[in-house]
Design a protein that fits this description.
16 strands, about 15% strand, binds flavin mononucleotide, glutamate synthase activity
């Protein structure tokens, strides 16, 4: 083999060539699920400075490190009191099967945290199994029902998602089962595009009116969250707070989606790491940091990610993709079937096709029946426990008796990009680029 002859182009690498060939053959753009796959500055580029001489660590098995968090105590009569700072992000019934939604509720409830509906409305199974259920109020209004609003424990007004800020979602016809169609009052089997903006708004003032409407409708009981895809985060967070949000959810570009154009997922938005300090700066300048809580999502995988998001100033995090993996998505037990679909366990992202062998991102009754919501819920609860214990381990090592006491001062960055974005010093220096 001649290495010179087989030199791969960095610009036209194999993936790029395959993408061009696919486009030339089909004439349609690629749609897929999951989040951005390109390398981006992320929480991996940060490290904690554990305690040693100048700081005092806490003993793992003897000294308490609390994990509870209160969300939405700015205006709501009934804020959410969660046992852990990790919540389950909104994922639609339609994108996910009924049993998968139920499992998310079961897993979250077992460890005392919340789960969230999604585009397409609330199913009785997920309401029944969720101790705390956040109801999404979306641009599409698919499945929107005022009675369900009142059944929820909090309301999340969705302005955007990290995977596709400025864009709407897609639910392809083969996932529009009779039940999904009925909940959305749309015909069966026909592709649905979710709107990219709310039908009755033209600007931020309309958000204020909408939040007030939602509060009146629910007797000022429920916290109102506002979810934004990370772009001009500093301004968006300020506007959301000004409009009356109790909680702001910032979803970075690594955030997962059920189905969007590939070009959108990879090229629109800013990394989660860059968005968190911008959101915190906006909250601090308004004097509401910790009073309006910040939930961060987009690529959270480990307890270290949780701890780093909290240290940068988040009050809690939300997980989507990792929760699906914990339920059993991309499990090697289905390796042969992923291969038949032209994919492999660990790579399957065609959530839009409804062919998921694990029975999670599907509306096919036979595939969905493979998935056991009790077993799935147990797996998710286990995973959430591990995330929490890992975050506690780090917090104790930094001398904190609550995971939310972690702070930027506990962090350093291993790349200049991450140091500039997270506004923490490059490791071994006191240099924060740009300050
Ligand atoms: C299968 C799937 C369906 C989703 N559906 C919705 C939705 O209906 N509404 C919404 O606001 N976000 C939706 N999202 C985005 C998540 O709420 C969340 O922002 C994202 O998954 C967080 O990033 P992560 O997947 O890296 O944890 C969906 C994500 C996935 C993976």
């Amino acid at each position: 083999m001649n290495p010179w002859a087989l030199r791969e182009s960095a610009t036209f690498d194999r993936t790029t060539i395959a993408a061009i060939q696919r486009a030339a053959e089909t004439g349609i753009y690629d749609i897929r699920g999951w989040g951005a796959k390109r390398p981006l500055p992320h929480f991996d580029d940060l490290l904690f400075l554990g305690a040693s001489m100048s700081r005092y660590p806490l003993e793992g098995y003897r000294e308490r490190c609390a994990t509870d968090v209160v969300l939405g105590d700015r205006h709501a009569k009934h804020p959410l009191h969660l046992d852990i700072p990790v919540t389950i992000a909104g994922m639609s019934f339609g994108a996910l099967s009924g049993p998968a939604k139920e499992a998310l509720g079961r897993g979250a409830s077992e460890v005392g945290t919340s789960t969230t509906t999604g585009d397409g409305g609330m199913t009785p199974e997920e309401r029944g199994q969720s101790k705390y259920l956040v109801y999404q109020y979306l641009p599409s209004r698919y499945g929107m029902n005022p009675d369900d609003l009142r059944k929820a424990d909090a309301i999340e007004v969705v302005l955007g998602q990290g995977a596709k800020p400025g864009g709407g979602g897609m639910l392809l016809g083969h996932k529009i089962s009779p039940r999904v169609a009925a909940m959305r009052t749309l015909p069966e089997g026909i592709d649905q595009r979710s709107a990219c903006r709310h039908p009755d708004w033209t600007g931020p003032d309309d958000l204020t009116i909408k939040i007030n409407e939602l509060r009146e409708l629910t007797d000022w009981e429920k916290p109102i969250y506002v979810k934004i895809g990370a772009t001009r985060t500093y301004y968006d967070v300020k506007l959301a707070v000004h409009a009356g949000a109790d909680v702001v959810v910032v979803d970075g570009m690594q955030g997962g989606t059920a189905a969007t154009q590939e070009v959108f997922i990879e090229h629109v938005g800013i990394p989660t790491l860059a968005a968190v300090p911008e959101a915190v700066r906006a909250l601090q300048e308004l004097g509401v940091h910790r009073r309006v809580q910040l939930i961060v999502s987009g690529g959270i995988r480990t307890g270290a990610d949780v701890a780093k998001a909290l240290a940068l100033g988040a009050d809690a995090v939300a997980i989507g993709t990792a929760a699906l993996i914990a339920l059993g998505d991309n499990h090697p037990r289905y390796a042969a079937e992923y291969e038949k679909l032209g994919s492999a366990a660990g790579f399957f992202d065609d959530f839009q096709d409804g062919t998921d062998p694990a029975g999670i991102s599907t509306q096919d009754p036979e595939l969905a029946a493979r998935f056991d919501p009790v077993e799935g819920g147990r797996r998710l609860a286990n995973y959430l426990r591990v995330l929490t214990m890992e975050a506690q381990t780090i917090a104790r090592a930094c001398g904190k008796s609550h995971v939310c006491h972690l702070e930027p001062e506990d962090l350093v960055a291993v790349t200049i990009e991450a140091a500039a974005m997270a506004r923490v010093p490059l490791a071994g220096t006191n240099w924060i680029p740009g300050t």
